[in-house]
């Protein structure tokens, strides 16, 4: 029997079989994927942990394992309705060719967090705001010392603000989130550390204040701590006395201990084992070889000088000796720069701690030579120069109408404008180097903000001094603590510009060198660059005779004991009073009574807020007409305060007269001066101010009878009129002939 095969049928059967097979495979793959998804989700849910604690009457919740599983560490932070995602990531290998720990800290402000769409054409967030940069620095400063000094893997701590509750500041949540994400990661870190913010309202401390309390209180203090010591302080204050400030610092330290206990609980349950890394420490045998070539005594002579250039020349000569000696050892040559740095560091620290000798020969509490002068820059509104040793700052103040205040667009809706702006510049020539200027970096922005905080508490109110103020500190020479020199120079420059500040402000920095025990330390007044580089602390404090206005403390060790903090604060008070009395006051003892010759002058008046629309006019027609005619600038706020800014007194007085006329209701007996703007058969219309007109009947123009208005008046004439009150039809009428002579 022969079976006939039809090709068409075979093709159909083959095709159908193919799709049946494919369908079976697809169903199997879908089922397999679904099972994997369920297992992954189950595993993810098993890893997901949530932890909560109460801080300042609000609940802090930390979600671990819920998001960002591929980061080394991640924490989704909730404090009230504020939400911040904090992550910590590290590269798998160290970065080659560097002699520092490459840590990057980011604080990302997403405007959707406050229900805003970014401005501009792109409609997306651009470069970091000044607040974001300053917050990143505050997170960086306490955490950096807790990483291993010889760790060279890139580490990034990213903090993304996703929701903002005005009662719970996102900056604080990001600080805690960065610490938690790093602690639970496998990145080597000697934590935990915790941070607390403290405000002061009516003399009472407020732990973790709201945005409004932070802005309007007398204290804005951030303190970071380890389980034993204070590790970072950042502060702005309205002349808070030193004893009260120490009390506030340790109030924060106390709260930090409860947070550290909370973090330790999280780490114990979900923390990853810390990974090993390749150490980049300098071999001891290399140090021994270097000491045989250049003895510690010779190194001491090389660094013992008060001239930075001389010291650098000495170190360059020593480095050349080492290069010649190690010419055949490529491994040692590759790390020679770091080895010389470490040799200098050991030498300087031993000199200070054991011998009580400073590199420039000063006593432990002695301040470098001081000098101050004002008015060195002509035609600017105010200028001053402050010199302390080889640190020199020239500050220039510019005054402008309030309309030129800096607009601020960020997550804090309580802050929309800055009336006082302080900018700090640090060109390469100030340290004898050469490199192109690329605009201010994070350090420059941070130094400017510190000097700004230092002076804000003594500035006059807008009602007392209706100006926007910009101070620019130009670093002419730098050898340590230029930010404190900027504070001194800016204070004198403001006084020279005629800004009626309440009290003089000065600033100084203290350093620290520590030994093997907590009791083995020495605090240095007015540290220079070398003592900053090789020391353990840079404790900057600004203030008046009455109290502290700003603090910024950076350290390179694992914290400060209370005696060190108290001694540093006492030293800085003593030093800043000395600077004011011996240097600043002889240059300028008090603010000038008037602003400078080239500064704009401002007249301020108050009008009924209901009359603001009359002054502005439809689409700004009235106010623009006044500005065009008088050549002044005019600012009006919602409370009815009007600021008239100009250089010529005549134009300012004319603008003031116009505004007063516009807001004045015509009443019988009032006398006005105006311009003829229209002539009719029955009379003339007189404009007393832009948008403010009145009519003089033909019978009220001249004492004698006239047949035509043009017989007496022409367009553009300036005339004086007296208000006669309302006529029979309820209209206001004026008279020229009944106006009394001047």
Can you put this structure into words, describing what you see?
- The strands form six sheets. The chain has an eight-stranded antiparallel sheet with strand order 8-7-9-10-21-20-18-19, sandwiched between helices. A six-stranded mixed sheet has the order 1-2-3-4-6-5.
- It folds into six domains: 1-45; 49-270, GHMP Kinase, N-terminal domain (Ribosomal Protein S5, domain 2); 284-355, Arc Repressor Mutant, subunit A (Orthogonal Bundle); 370-587, Ribosomal Protein S5, domain 2; 600-664, 2-Layer Sandwich (Ribosomal Protein S8, Chain: A, domain 1), CATH 3.30.1370.10; 666-742, Nucleic acid-binding proteins (OB fold (Dihydrolipoamide Acetyltransferase, E2P), Beta Barrel), CATH 2.40.50.140.
- By secondary structure, the chain is an alpha+beta fold.
- 35% of the residues lie in helices and 28% in strands.
- The protein is built from 17 helices and 29 strands.
- The model is unreliable at 1-10 (pLDDT under 50).
Summary of the model, kept short:
Residues 669-737 form the S1 motif domain. The chain is an alpha+beta fold. The chain is 35% helix and 28% strand.
Topology:
Layout: H1 7-47, E1 49-55, E2 58-64, E3 73-79, E4 82-94, E5 103-109, H2 130-143, E6 153-163, H3 170-184, E7 194-201, E8 204-207, H4 211-216, E9 219-225, E10 230-240, H5 242-270, H6 284-293, H7 296-303, H8 308-325, H9 330-334, H10 336-355, E11 370-374, E12 382-388, E13 391-400, E14 406-407, E15 417-418, E16 420-425, H11 442-455, E17 468-477, H12 482-496, E18 506-514, E19 521-525, H13 529-534, E20 537-543, E21 548-555, H14 562-587, E22 601-606, H15 612-616, H16 621-630, E23 633-636, E24 641-646, H17 649-663, E25 671-680, E26 683-689, E27 692-697, E28 718-726, E29 732-735
Parallel strand pairs: 5-6, 16-17, 27-29
Antiparallel strand pairs: 1-2, 2-3, 3-4, 4-6, 7-8, 7-9, 9-10, 10-21, 11-12, 12-13, 13-17, 14-15, 18-19, 18-20, 20-21, 22-24, 23-24, 25-26, 25-28, 26-27, 28-29
Helix pairs in contact: 2-3, 2-11, 7-10, 11-12, 16-17
